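To whoever is on call:

I kicked off a structure prediction for a single chain this morning and the downstream step that reads the tokens threw a length-mismatch warning. I double-checked the sequence; it's 307 residues and nothing unusual in it as far as I can see. Pasting both halves so you can look.
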Amino acid sequence: ATVLVQKGTLKVGANIAAGANHGKVRAMSDDRGNRIKTAGPSTPVEILGLSGVPNAGEVFVSTATANEAKDFANTFVEDSKAKLMESNKFRISLDDLNSQIEAGELKELNLIIKADVQGSVEAVRQSLVKLSNEEVEVKVIHGGVGAINESDVILASASNAIIIGFNVKPDAQAEETAKTEGVDLRLYSVIYNAIDDIERAMKGMLEPVYEEKVIGHAEIRQIFKASGVGNIAGSYVLDGAMQRGCSARVTRDGEQIYEGPVASLKRFKDDVKEVKAGYECGLVFEKFNDIAEGDQVEAYMMVEVPR
């Protein structure tokens, strides 16, 4: 972080705190890039040692002990939470955003933005704030650089905010806390996708998200030829189940040779809805007949992700 010393003298090894971050000055350099050990008033210096990237304009202090620096940072976080606590505690998500706006329950949409660089934070902030309209004001209550951490999620929970991540991911603890607290966490790599999602949500037009769910595996053990149908893969279901309407990946010697819909699922000569592990079935792959004994089949379905 680049800091401007205003009072006193900053030394290498000093305990420091800036906003929600704290640490110890490990190294310090002046505006010419030269390593220095002390910096007096009106001196801009670049320091190394904070636990995270502070926001521009944060108050920076040097304390007598490491515990005091940590307490300063924790007090900043607690004060931020206290200021942002709201009387209504309903959890906000993009999916029910429009219904809450229409019911008059939501006048402000609080957002927390985390990005890989400060420039992106500002770009996303400015773009999203412009989406404010007569019914709801879009407010960015916190913006920062780096991975989404537990502090961000706790702040979002306390202030009833949605977290927008741009080219960053949540750490494991943050992801777990978000699930526990019911915090809506959205990740993007393109600014326009984030803008589009917020805009659609405010109009009640957000589209559902689907993800792949593997439902079972099978091994092809015999090939049957059928006129008008093509090759039928006589298969043994190893685990899970094969289901009508599923898609499949066929691999041979570890290399994928087909991915697409399962055209039909048979048990003996009958079309069936499902064949479970431990049973045999006949699989027909859509417009694909180049199958062989020993090929491995992985079946999957696209399911809607609950938001």
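Update from on-call: the warning came from a stale cache, not from the record. Cleared it. Sanity check on the structure: The first helix runs from residue 66 to 84.
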